[in-house]
Amino acid sequence: MTTHEEGAMSDIARSHQRHHEYTYRLPTPPRIVVPPPTQTTEVPDLQLSSARALAEELDTSFLKEFNLDTIVQKNTLLEWTYERRRQAQMILPWLYLGPLTSAKDRDFLRREGITMVLAIRARDNSMNGALQIAREVCHEVSTIEAANYFTLIGKFSEATRTINRHVAQFRKYAERTGKPRLGKVLVFCESGNEKAAAVVAAYMMETLDNFDFIKSMQVCQAQRFCVNFDDTVKNILRAHWDILLARRAVAISHSERLEARGLLDGLQEAVSTLEATQTVTSKPKRTIEETREDDDVDMENALDPTDLLRFEGRDITPFR
Questions:
Q1: Other CB atoms within 10 A of residue 253 CB
Q2: How confident is the model at residue 141 (pLDDT cuts 50, 70, 90)?
Q3: Residue 53, exposed/middle/buried by CB under 10 A (0-12, 13-18, 19+)?
Q4: Structural domain spans, the chain
Q5: For the whole model, what pTM was predicted?
């Protein structure tokens, strides 16, 4: 009996054994693994987002003229050197990513045709030297202040609107001057590897179609190998991706609702037009004169002979 009870207790103990060891660190979200770019990594297709066009008031449809499939160079890792971290690299034909030193390089700004610089800084009185040089060369200078990454997440959409607004307005300006060319924006921070890289990745997520936070970070790292996406930035970009998915779902639903309302209005207008047409083409009522002319017949010739015999000798005049 004792042996049976001990065996039963041992079975219960084994069934409640821990499958994982205890840990004493603070609870953290699961790690986001971004595969590093390699020479064999296939470049994802780059297409402008149609959902973004639904909610965007600016006309950026001309950006579809660029063949974005061949923008990301597959063998840039072979050409990468340590000195290139002090330079800016092209992420999209109208978007560059670089450090503070690239914004101070007048020759680089003129050679690449940079028309706007967007500084991502922690305070509103920093990077004044680079901004002053950019004002001498570029058409526009803009800044976004974010003391930390958690403040920066609320500025991602603002940065995207700023970039698209400048590219669209510069396109119109270049067409008026008779020298059409593409506006180019340089996004930079102190190192060009942290806050500015996060802004560029968020821009690609919001502008390109079916381009999540993993693909955005991969493309940024493939073009600028020294970018640093730590766990905080990865989780912030993932949260921003969830926000973008919700916005796109609302925009598509609103567009479908407007389309359905337009179809209903068109149907009602067609019904009204049909009713009006039927009213016009219907036979009008006879006038009183036409009625009298039709009723003015010879009753004696029209009556039946039996009726004539029945009314013979009667005064049937109704009134005098």
A1: 10
A2: very high
A3: middle
A4: 54-69+85-257
A5: 0.70
Q: Using a pLDDT cut of 70, give the percent of the chain over it.
A: 67
Amino acid at 66: F
| Residue at token pair 């049909």 | 274
Tokens 């706007």 belong to residue: 116
What does the alpha-carbon distance between residue 217 and residue 229 come to, in Å, rounded to a whole number?
Answer: 8
| Residues 6+ away with beta carbon under 8 Å from 235 | 29, 32
Q: Taking a C-beta distance cutoff of 8 angstroms, is the pair 85, 99 a contact?
A: yes
Q: What class is the 54-69+85-257 domain?
A: alpha beta
Question: Do residues 185 and 114 make contact, with C-beta atoms less than 8 angstroms apart?
Answer: yes
> Please, what is the angle between helix 213-223 and helix 195-207, to 10°?
120
pLDDT class of 55 with cuts at 50, 70, 90: very low
